[in-house]
Amino acid sequence: MSLLVVGSVAFDSVETPFGKADEAIGGSAMFFSTSASYFEEVQLVAVVGDDFPEKEIDFLKSRNVDCEGLHRVEGKTFRWEGKYGFDLNEAITLDTQLNVFGDFHPRLPQDYCDADAVFLANIDPDLQLEVLDQVRDPKLVACDTMNFWIDSKPERLELVFSRVDMVIINESEARKIADKANVVQAAREIQKMGPRHVVIKRGEYGALCFSDDLIFFAPAYPLESVFDPTGAGDTFAGGLLGYLVGQGSIRPRDLRQATVVGCVMASFCVEDFSLEAMRKLDYDIIKRRFEKFQRLVSFEPLELLDQ
Amino acid sequence: MSLLVVGSVAFDSVETPFGKADEAIGGSAMFFSTSASYFEEVQLVAVVGDDFPEKEIDFLKSRNVDCEGLHRVEGKTFRWEGKYGFDLNEAITLDTQLNVFGDFHPRLPQDYCDADAVFLANIDPDLQLEVLDQVRDPKLVACDTMNFWIDSKPERLELVFSRVDMVIINESEARKIADKANVVQAAREIQKMGPRHVVIKRGEYGALCFSDDLIFFAPAYPLESVFDPTGAGDTFAGGLLGYLVGQGSIRPRDLRQATVVGCVMASFCVEDFSLEAMRKLDYDIIKRRFEKFQRLVSFEPLELLDQ
Predict the structure, then answer these.
(1) Which of residues 101-140 of A touch B (CB under 8 A)?
(2) Which of A15, A213, B98, B205 is the most exposed place for a label (fewest CB within 10 A)?
(3) Residue B263: per-residue pLDDT
(4) Is residue A302 part of a domain?
(5) ipTM for the complex?
(6) Partner residue facing B247 (CB), from A88, A184, A304
């Protein structure tokens, strides 16, 4: 199986109450593919400038990420600068420099067009559609988006939604797209736009997965030290889709596990700046945290109420 | 076993995007005792005016709530008026009339002083201390509080915390008391003030229970229609403590189940205005929803990662 991701690779400068990272490696496709690489082979489509370090591309290759679609062009790599307040809940964007990303049009290498699964990270819906026009017969297509596109290109976004199997978005964005304050109603509304599966990211509260009649609530792990939430959403999507594609099926049982795997990977991501905490994982570490998640939410059936 | 609650009984006038309730029955002790009554005998200490309907006291008695401590005095019952916005997350208080509650000092009937467990609902910490001075040897004492007391009587509140076994509070209040943005750190900080068990209410995101080394994450049920969140927190506490006292033990296993029972009861509470949805429950209905909670969060262990 193969999992194609199209998104951004960037330098992030981030300040949190716990420290500062200057021009650290980031971008949706970077977080996604690192996370997914623990479960499935990933094909990466993105663009970087001539200032992007070769050793980071080597890192991706070492993780079995196919970088044929990672185009290097003249100019500077996409840069984002942001800051988090005391509660780490929302990033304030201080600066965005699109640089080489400004002219980005995803061109898929020939063998990427047969990808089994596709993740369209949060980019312009028009670019997401360009990707969909290039892939042949993927079994699973998922997408993310953000407020900016909901406001500026609602019709193009609806077209994207009508062509994907799964939407993975933040709770506030789900409410906005669906114009429903109630999260269940919002998910049902989005399902009506096309995607069979809707996964709603709730930050430190975990995630909700809706699929046909299934509603599954995955917790976030209550960590004593959260350093930097940047990239947690894409890391979540990477874990979820990587695991799902690796399983080769989308039964409710797989969706439940995959949503938890997403939360597991995100729980590593936030423990350090940039990709740092995710560079050194292995199956054993991931599995042990997965088991912690299981203990976190497990409880016995009621018995004494029968008396 | 017996479970004593001291708190308010009130008339609530509530407006939500889904409707309006005028002078409906409310108050922390009212929600708590109705909820707890499904699991344990409750002794209620509160005050009402001469305008409080006798049939509501009959309702409590029919639910096995001992109303000897519910004092009726001359004057008007406590009134609260509030409004919820689109997302139902926070109530805006429009009006508060303490009325007879303004001169309230809890006087416990003789046999209440031997209560096995006590819940000090969100009232003046000085009144909470007056209750603690009257009870003899309760096995479990829990309390709630709110921002108003954290700001105005921090030292009295710390004294209360040093004398209770369990604190059940909202997430934002836990962060404020502990001066920690991180919820795990906040809970650990509160534990240092005295209570062995800290339960943090997160509204539509469920609840977290901390006890010694235990961390348990209970989900809230994602309901398609939430009518009125008023009283959900006290209903949660009622279910949690009612179940726990009914079990007669506070093992981690009981705490996990009790926290879920709290969420189950709160999920009924929000489905209608006032106490309406909670008047007509029975063990079967409660148990079926408990089972729905179990399906909501259950997932299989990872296997394929071993390959």
Answers:
(1) none
(2) A213
(3) 98
(4) no
(5) 0.93
(6) A304
pLDDT score at A305: 52
Mean pLDDT along residues A82-108:
91
- B150 has a pLDDT exceeding 50: yes
- From the number of C-beta atoms within 10 Å of its C-beta (0-12, 13-18, 19+), residue A83 rates as middle
Does residue B18 carry a pLDDT above 90?
Answer: no
Q: Indicate the residue of A182, A247, A299 with minimum beta-carbon distance to B226.
A: A182
Cβ pair A117, A110 in contact under 8 A: no
Which CATH number does the domain housing residue A19 bear? 3.40.1190.20
pTM over 0.90: yes
- pLDDT of A307 reads 41
Give just the sign of the alpha carbon dihedral A39, A43, A47, A48. Answer: positive
- Containing domain of residue A92, as a range? 3-296
* pLDDT tens track for A267-297: 999 999 999 999 999 999 999 999 999 999 9
Mutate to test the interface with B, among A217, A243, A300 (most CBs of B within 10 A): A217
- Please give the residue of chain B at the shortest CA–CA distance from A184: B224
Q: Are B56 and B31 in contact (CB under 8 A)?
A: no
CB contact under 8 A, B257 and A300: yes
User: Quick one: tokens of A158?
Assistant: 């609806």
Query: Domain for residue A127, yes or no?
Result: yes
Q: Is residue B191 part of a domain?
A: yes
* CA gap A193, A108 in Å, rounded: 27
Angstrom CA distances, A171 to A128, A155, B239, stand at 21, 20, 28
Compute the nearest-CA separation of B2 from chain A (Å). Answer: 17
B193 touches chain A (CB under 8 A): no
Phi, psi of A261 (to 5 degrees): -60, -40
C-beta atoms surrounding A154 within 10 Å = 12
Distance (Å, whole) CA B22 – CA B300: 47
Domain assignment of residue B303, yes or no: no
pLDDT at site B90? 80
pLDDT at position A70: 98
Question: Among A88, A223, A246, whose Cβ lies nearest the Cβ of B304?
Answer: A246
Residue A19 has pLDDT above 90, yes or no: no
Nearest residue to A40 (alpha-carbon basis) of A70, A66, A7: A66
Looking at residue B305, its pLDDT comes to 52
Computed over every residue of chain A, the mean pLDDT equals 95
